[in-house]
Specification:
Largest sheet: 2 strands, parallel
Number of strands: 2
Order of helices and strands: EHHHHHHE
Shape: globular
Structural class: mainly alpha
Radius of gyration: 18 Å
Helix content: over 70%
Length: 216
């Protein structure tokens, strides 16, 4: 028998605020990428301009990841109150939150402080490993939750999982193609906008999980 999750007013407010930060980070990252694209100044930039764009992009990505981890933590907290029925997805989401924090702390923030050349090799390995594991644990947690939650929440969870998978596949496709050939500027821009769109709507679906009746 499927269950439902009840969110408190504070959890609903926190989810809305985190989603706003999530979108702000995505927009900031897109602006950073646009500032370094072929569409601006023919793609010719000074080293200082490239460095500024890279730092701005890293800061925006850190915001997206941190806000996303916060949204997952809100879901995990609410799901944890249901009890044993949602114990498995709660654990997956808890693992995803912890690994995302480790990823930001080891792969994003140190670059902002030390620069890419000053990153220790072991820290780079920790960042890469925690990032891959976090990006695996998060959709598994949502999918596990989808199997146990019914109604509108279940349908929204299903859409959220699908959009996250589309975002992930789009990103992998862009990287894979660029390994073998240079993408035209318009194709790269289309791919990035598609990935950003999937991620934004995914965040919206996750945020809407708290809509409807809430507890005190």
């Amino acid at each position: 028998m499927k269950t439902t999750i009840t969110y408190t007013i504070k959890e609903k407010a926190a989810m809305t605020a985190l989603f706003a930060l999530f979108v702000a980070g995505i927009v900031g990252d897109l602006l950073a990428l646009l500032s370094q694209s072929e569409f601006v100044n023919g793609g010719v930039f000074t080293e200082s301009q490239n460095l500024t764009g890279d730092y701005f992009s890293l800061a925006a990505e850190s915001l997206v990841l941190s806000a996303g981890a916060g949204m997952a933590a809100v879901i995990r907290r609410a799901a944890g109150r249901v009890g044993e029925a949602l114990a498995v997805p709660s654990r997956w989401l808890a693992v995803a939150v912890v690994l995302t924090i480790v990823y930001v702390a080891s792969a994003k923030l140190p670059v902002l402080v030390l620069g890419s050349d000053g990153m220790p090799y072991w820290l780079d390995l920790v960042g890469t490993g925690s990032g891959l594991l976090a990006f695996s644990a998060y959709p598994l947690g949502l999918l596990s939750l989808r199997r146990r939650v019914g109604g509108r929440q279940g349908r929204r969870l299903g859409r959220a999982v699908l959009l996250f998978v589309l975002f992930w596949l789009t990103g992998v496709a862009i990287v894979a193609v660029q390994l073998f050939a240079d993408l035209p500027p318009w194709a790269a821009a289309a791919g990035v906008l598609t990935a950003a769109g999937c991620l934004t709507v995914h965040g919206g679906m996750v945020c809407r999980l708290t809509s409807g009746d809430v507890g005190k």
